[in-house]
C-alpha cells in the first residue's frame, strides 16, 4: 500500500516508558498514545461507542476484507513518523494480512501495512478531528474515517499529502458512503445507522 515506512530509531524512550507506566496504573479500558511528543490518555469507551465500532466492522467483514489478503483489527498500535516515540492506537484498522512482518516496537506496527484507520470520537473528540488527522496523513495512511458523534457526521479523508489530507468529505445522516478502492473491496456505509448506533443517551 502507499503508507509511509518508518525506521525504528535507536535511543532512550522516556516518553514511552512514562506512557507504559501510566497504562499499567490506569483502570482497564484506558488508551495511552503519544502524538506530537505529547502523551494522550483516552478514557474507556461507552456502550454506544463500542456498538458503533462493532456495526462498522460488519461491512468490512461482509466484503471479505478479513481474510487472506487483509485483516480487520481493533486497537492495533500504529508507529508514527511524526516523532521518535510517537504512536497511535486507532479504534479500528484495516491492515495487510502480513502486518506481523512489520512489527516495530511497543506493540506497534509500521504504517506501510495500514490501508485504513477509523476513530469513533469520545470526550476528547478534538484529538481525532485535528491531531490525528495530521499524524495519520504524515504516516500516509490512505483512508481515515472519523465517526464524529458530537457533530453527527461521518468524515472520510483520503489523499494524504504532508500533514494533511487532500480530500476531506463530511457525510450527514441519510447519506451513504462508498469507500475508495484503496481498501481492497467495495465497502458501503450507512451514515444514519452508524451515527444512531453511536449516539449517547445524553446527546
Q: What does this entry show, briefly?
A:
The protein is of the alpha+beta class and 203 residues long.
Describe this structure in words.
It is a single chain. 25% of the residues lie in helices and 33% in strands. By secondary structure, the chain is an alpha+beta fold. Strands 3-6-9-10-11-12 form a 6-stranded mixed β-sheet. The chain starts with 13 loop residues before the first helix and ends in a 5-residue tail after the last helix.
Which sequence of strands runs across the widest sheet?
3-6-9-10-11-12
Mean pLDDT: 92
Query: What fraction, in percent, of the residue positions are helical?
Result: 10-25%
Structure summary, number of beta strands = 14
Major β-sheet annotation = 6 strands, mixed
- What best-fitting shape do the alpha-carbon axes yield? globular
The Rg value, from CA coordinates, equals 16 Å
Given helix and strand content, the structural type is alpha+beta
Write a concise keyword list for the protein shown above.
about 25% helix, 4-stranded mixed beta sheet, single chain, alpha+beta, about 200 residues
Please describe the topology of this protein.
Blueprint: H1 14-25, E1 31-35, E2 38-42, H2 47-62, E3 70-74, E4 77-79, E5 87-88, E6 92-96, E7 103-105, E8 108-109, E9 114-120, H3 125-138, E10 143-148, E11 153-161, E12 164-171, E13 176-178, E14 188-190, H4 191-198
Parallel strand pairs: 4-8, 9-10
Antiparallel strand pairs: 1-2, 3-6, 4-5, 6-9, 7-8, 10-11, 11-12, 13-14
Helix pairs in contact: 2-4
